[in-house]
């Protein structure tokens, strides 16, 4: 590797670490908030009253059919026109969380609907409330089925966080582009940024496998 690049990388370590921290924060917040909202969306799609299901179905179809970049721009520019002033960071997290919730909602819906109805009826027969039925019967089974696809969705949120540079969020990609404009080492810095994104997604994958092992049914 070119030693001049290593020198520039060392000099730029603070901006890159700050950008990496922002990217991790955006990804973590959007995944957590999006997953919580997605569980609610999935429950509404399966167990909600018919008007609620129609509204939530329209929400998921619209959001899933909208490019993430459009959601990011709408969260930052359109919301301000109706009096909701969000900073670039908050607008970006909102857009990614909404997008994540639509996909997680579909994952939860599919996982819940794949569970035989007899299990729900058996839970009612022994006096379990809906909350208890979901916590002890439906939830664990749905988690095991939805987990692999959830890992993919979480990884997509990490990659989608790069789009926030267009509204001025100083995440890893924007920091990298600023360094490239100063050093003209585009290949080296883009390769290094790609490596850092790989590390983040690899961590998500390992976390998913850990949860999968913990929730696996003993054979």
Describe the structure.
With 219 residues, the protein is mainly α. It is 83% helix and 0% strand. The chain contains nine helices and no strands. The chain is flat.
Helix content: over 70%
Tally of DSSP helical segments: 9
N-end to C-end Cα span: 49 Å
Overall number of strands: 0
| Beta-strand fraction estimate | under 5%
Shape: flat
The major sheet is characterized as: none
Report mean pLDDT, rounded to a whole number: 90
Quaternary organisation of the protein chains: single chain
Task: Give a topology summary.
Blueprint: H1 3-11, H2 13-47, H3 50-64, H4 68-81, H5 88-113, H6 117-125, H7 130-160, H8 172-183, H9 186-215
Helix pairs in contact: 2-3, 2-5, 2-8, 3-5, 4-5, 5-7, 6-7, 7-9, 8-9
Label this structure with key terms.
219 residues, mainly alpha, 9 helices, 83% helix
What's the gist of this structure?
The protein is mostly helical and 219 residues long. The protein has 9 helices and no strands.
């Amino acid at each position: 590797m070119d030693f001049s690049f290593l020198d520039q990388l060392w000099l730029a370590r603070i901006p890159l670490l700050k950008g990496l921290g922002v990217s991790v924060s955006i990804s973590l917040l959007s995944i957590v908030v999006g997953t919580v909202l997605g569980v609610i969306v999935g429950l509404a799609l399966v167990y909600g009253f018919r008007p609620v299901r129609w509204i939530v179905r329209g929400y998921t179809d619209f959001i899933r059919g909208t490019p993430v970049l459009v959601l990011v721009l709408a969260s930052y520019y359109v919301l301000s026109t109706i009096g909701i002033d969000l900073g670039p960071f908050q607008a970006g997290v909102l857009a990614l969380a909404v997008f994540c919730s639509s996909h997680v909602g579909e994952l939860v819906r599919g996982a819940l609907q794949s569970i035989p109805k007899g299990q729900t009826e058996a839970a009612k027969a022994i006096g379990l409330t809906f909350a208890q039925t979901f916590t002890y019967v439906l939830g664990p089974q749905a988690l095991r089925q939805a987990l692999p696809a959830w890992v993919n969705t979480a990884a997509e949120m990490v990659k989608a966080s790069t789009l926030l540079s267009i509204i001025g969020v100083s995440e890893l990609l924007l920091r990298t582009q600023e360094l490239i404009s100063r050093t003209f080492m585009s290949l080296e810095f883009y390769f290094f940024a790609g490596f850092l994104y790989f590390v983040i997604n690899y961590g998500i994958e390992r976390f998913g496998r850990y949860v999968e092992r913990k929730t696996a049914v003993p054979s």
